[in-house]
Design a protein that fits this description.
Layout (H helix, E strand, L loop, with lengths): L1 H17 L14 E14 L5 E6 L8 E4 L4 E5 L1 E2 L8 E2 L3 E7 L5 E6 L6 E8 L3 E8 L6 E11 L5
Length: 159
């Protein structure tokens, strides 16, 4: 009888300690860091029509661009364009912004310095190495919706 009670106690302890919910939670990689844009997909949806998507593969100069998200909800976008004349890539002035990001809904709002209207975006994918960010663009026509989805690669270790 003693052995049966000991066996039951041991099994109860094993079951109780083995049912932790901490294994069910997977922490999402942080957004903080420098990101290199690789490509973008522009999807246009007109009410009553099929969506049309165009893939824009970035050139070597465009891949020198960087988006930076800091831990203080500040960011910077450094765009690099192809040169007008052959030679060095054309580095554009920095675009500073503040942002808010809701980890649960994946919604993001960016406010660029000097621009009144905020930019609404949604994080589609976020891992240690990849970020897909869908940015909604306003159009003149209320029946037309445009989304620009950027694919980024992390270019620095996260802090």
């Amino acid at each position: 009888m003693k052995k049966l009670a000991l066996l039951f106690s041991g099994l109860s302890l094993l079951v109780a300690s083995g049912c932790s919910t901490s294994n069910d939670y997977v922490e999402e990689a942080p957004l903080i860091g420098f990101w290199q844009p690789l490509k973008e997909v522009v999807t246009t949806v007109e009410v009553g029509e099929q969506p049309v998507s165009d893939v824009i593969t970035y050139t070597d100069c465009q891949k020198e661009s960087r988006w930076w998200f800091s831990s203080e909800v500040k960011g910077k976008r450094i765009d690099v364009k192809d040169p007008v004349t052959p030679g060095l890539c054309d580095i554009q002035p920095d675009a500073n912004f503040t942002y808010s990001y809701d980890n649960n809904s994946k919604n993001m709002q960016m406010k660029y310095q000097g621009v009144v209207a905020p930019v609404n975006a949604k994080v589609i994918t976020l891992s240690e190495t990849t970020l897909n960010l869908a940015v909604r663009e306003e159009t003149e026509d209320p029946a037309v919706f445009k989304t620009r989805t950027y694919t980024f690669k992390r270019v620095n270790p996260q802090h």
